[in-house]
Amino acid sequence: MITRDMILTFARATPYRPFSIHLSDGREVKAAHPDSMFVSRGGTLFHESDDGEITIFDLDHITSINLKPRRRAA
Fold first, then answer.
1. Residue 51 to residues 2, 32, 48: CA-CA distances in angstroms?
2. Phi, psi torsion values for 36, nearest 5 degrees
3. Rg (Cα) of the chain, in Å, rounded?
4. Alpha-carbon span 11 to 74, nearest angstrom
5. Which of 23, 28, 41, 44 sits a CA distance of 20 to 30 A from 53?
6. Any residues with CB less than 8 A from the CB of 73 and at least 6 apart, and which?
7. Which band of pLDDT confidence, cut at 50, 70 and 90, is reported for residue 70?
8. Which of 12, 35, 6 is closest to 21 using CA atoms?
């Protein structure tokens, strides 16, 4: 089960690593930057995409989270 603390750990990571949240209905929510989401104490996640679309869902509907690879220094 994905918890609020897990989401907040990913969202507050320094440096930030974009991640994708996969939902039980097949949708994918891409968290491109940390300011794109808010997680309530009750376990509801509010996400705004770069194009302004807002998605609201309960954490119980998350099936997996994929972290994007870290960028390597040149």
1. 26, 12, 8
2. -85, -5
3. 12
4. 25
5. 41
6. none
7. confident
8. 6
Residue 27 amino acid letter? R
Q: Which residues of 33-47 are buried (b: 16+ CB within 10 A; e: fewer)?
A: eeebbebeeeeebeb
Q: Which tokens go with 59?
A: 């954490």
Domains (range + CATH), the chain: 4-67 (2.30.30.100)
Q: Which residue has the tokens 């907040």?
A: 8
What token pair was written down for 53? 């679309």
Instruction: Retrieve residue 66's tokens.
Output: 């994929």
Q: Are 28 and 60 in contact (CB under 8 A)?
A: no
Q: Is the pLDDT of residue 33 over 70?
A: yes
